[in-house]
Design goal:
Helices cover 4% and strands 37% of the residues. It contains 1 helix and 10 strands, in the order βββαβββββββ. The protein has one helix spanning 37-42; strands at residues 7-12, 19-24, 31-34, 46-48, 54-58, 67-68, 75-79, 86-95, 98-106, 123-126. Bound molecules: zinc ion (ZN). Residues 13-15, 17-18, 80, 82-83, 85 line the site of zinc ion. Belongs to the Gfa family.
Length: 147
């Protein structure tokens, strides 16, 4: 396996209260959407990233970023309480008897004009609404989802 070529991108919420830097390999981005209740209403484009490649720039501590949780509370949806933008998600879930940690940014919170064209993201779609995680992310949005 070749070493990925990482490039640092800046991102954040709309008002600038939440700012981050993230190292991504632009040639290998895992972008997805989901039809679950929160992903649909935020219309989030999830981009999985290695948490070690993510640095919160502002505020100083992640504890200062409001986070929303619901249902099983296994996920933290971190957002800005000034402008309302959901910036990133972290949490964990159990899959086939193992605890899997997940971390993703909302791709639309990456700053514009950094050489990453969101139109070129190869989106895949999860059926979170049907809790059909076993199907993996598929090419077309499952029922209840959107492009
Ligand atoms: Zn904000």
């Amino acid at each position: 396996m070749s070493t990925p070529t990482l490039k640092t991108f800046a991102g954040g919420c709309h008002c600038g209260a939440v700012r981050y830097a993230v190292d991504l390999d632009p040639s290998n981005l895992e972008a997805s959407k989901c039809n679950c209740s929160i992903c649909l209403k935020t219309n989030r484009i999830s981009l999985s990233v290695d948490p070690d490649n993510f640095r919160l720039v502002s505020p100083a501590s992640r504890d200062e970023v409001p986070n929303y949780q619901f249902a099983s509370k296994s996920q933290h949806y971190l957002f800005c309480d000034k402008c309302g933008i959901h910036c990133f998600v972290n949490g964990s879930y159990e899959w086939e008897g193992k605890v899997v940690k997940n971390f993703s940014i909302n791709a639309v919170t990456l700053d514009a004009d950094q050489g990453l064209d969101l139109r070129e993201l190869k989106l895949r779609y999860w059926d979170g609404k049907g809790e059909n995680w076993g199907a993996g992310a598929v090419e077309k949005p499952p029922a209840g989802g959107c492009l």
